[in-house]
Amino acid sequence: MSEVDWIDAALTGARPQAIGALLRYFRDLDLAEEAYQDACLRALRSWPKQGPPRDAAAWLIMVGRNAAIDQVRRGARQTALPDEAALSDLDDVEAPLAERLDGAHYRDDVLRLLFICCHPDLPATQQIALALRIVSGLSVRQIARAFLVGETAMEQRITRAKARIAKADTPFETPGPIERAERLAAVMTMIYLVFNEGYSAGPAGEDERGALADEAIRLARLLLRLFAAEPEVMGLLALMLLQHARAAARFDAAGEIVLLDDQDRDLWNRRMIGEGLALIDKAIRHRRRGAYQVQAAIAALHVRAARPADTDWTQIDALYAALEQLDPSPVVTLNRAVAVSKVRGPEAALAMIAPLEARLGGYFHYFGLKGALLKQLGRAAEAGRAFDQAISLAATPAQAAHIRQHLDQLAGEGAAGR
Amino acid sequence: MLYAFLCYNDEDAVFSWSQAQDDAVMAALGKVHERLEKAGRIGPTARLMPTTAATTLRKDTDPPLVLDGPYAETKEQLLGFYVIECADLEAALDVARDLARANPGGAYEVRPVRGFSPGALAAAAPGA
Lengths: 418, 128
Known about the structure:
Mean pLDDT of chain A: 87
Oligomer: heterodimer
Largest interface: A-B, 37 and 31 residues
Number of helices of chain B: 3
Order of helices and strands of chain B: EHHEEEEHE
Number of strands of chain B: 6
Structural class of chain A: mainly alpha
Low-confidence stretches of chain A: 86-96
Number of helices of chain A: 20
Distance between the termini of chain B: 32 Å
Helix content of chain A: over 70%
Largest sheet of chain A: none
Low-confidence stretches of chain B: none
């Protein structure tokens, strides 16, 4: 790994803590961000020469804070603070600050930062944009590309989010226990939305959107460090790891979707699966069921099957039933119907999804599943109509291409039958 | 003399490595491992999952207390270990320097081993 790579990873790793602490000092997102950027520029100049500091975050906080104070003062009188080259004996200068950063401050600073980004006054789209910009440090350009909007529009979205936070009541206080739980749920939702943006994007690693899944996993690890005994955070992280583990197998060389049953299971990432399963084990001990944990348990049953035929669909059906209780939604029932079709057959699954049509009439996956079930039952004409509707609702070319395969098969079967 | 090499690094930074960066570090470490392997000096090694996957059992209470997370919150975390045969401390520090060039940041704690058993495990795939 080159020196630049190494420094880059250190800066990324230290970012949430450093910005969180700078926010504590300045109580202003823009100022904290600028101070951090300034510190990073100085790090890029100084670290290759002076060697890396022992505590990158403490170094960035101190240098960033001095730089910002310096800038504020410069307006009044021209007094420069000693530059960072003078801080060569880093251990000496760092020691008192680093001590203060231990324990409570680390937790509170990062938590405050996450809570601000997921402030209840902000719509989800702004929360996501702000978190990716401030906590993850993605550039506006990267975020804009990930969400398929123009750079200017994304810039405005972030500016608006910051303006709302500035207007919000006491946005920088760490909330009390009840509000904390609500805000934690908002942070988890934000992280999972980021993940799904990346997950639904297409072949992994191809563009900024693919990188969002990795970023979401990083954010969830950060959150779990702050809430080490919270089983739902473990469940969220496990769920994302187990889903992302399949990334390399989810698309073929042409970029088309490969369904779970057809995936090459040797391409699944064993390291992520191992970590995901370990986290589920930890979560289960708490005996506090939650929606993320149940979804992670479902994903675990899929990855535990060596072959598609080994999948424990009965257990998956039971877990979806639990999820319907915890977090009822037509999409959950739709997913349960897939398990039901495996356990009790396509007829039962079709009956299960029929009442959902009114609410899922604009949902690609509804018609994709309906078509597939009808096709299994040999009702080709109805299947064809459902697939046509699915194609008209497809959000990505990969989705449309997948349904077209079904239609081609139907056409093939029809021709063979004639 | 056998030495344990306890690998400490900032997990925030390590888990910010891209796959390509991770692969590059592993490839560089692989060369060091290979030399030691050829010399028949390297014993068990392990790379650990992040501390978020850790659970700690405190046995100073009765019954023991099970806690989520690592034993101690530290700025750099225990992320792996080696057991390596070295002639003396200087030789062990040479190995640590070689490893450090391949994998910058953090620290190696070099600790002489008091008792050693190779155990009964064959090499296992992570997560298996």
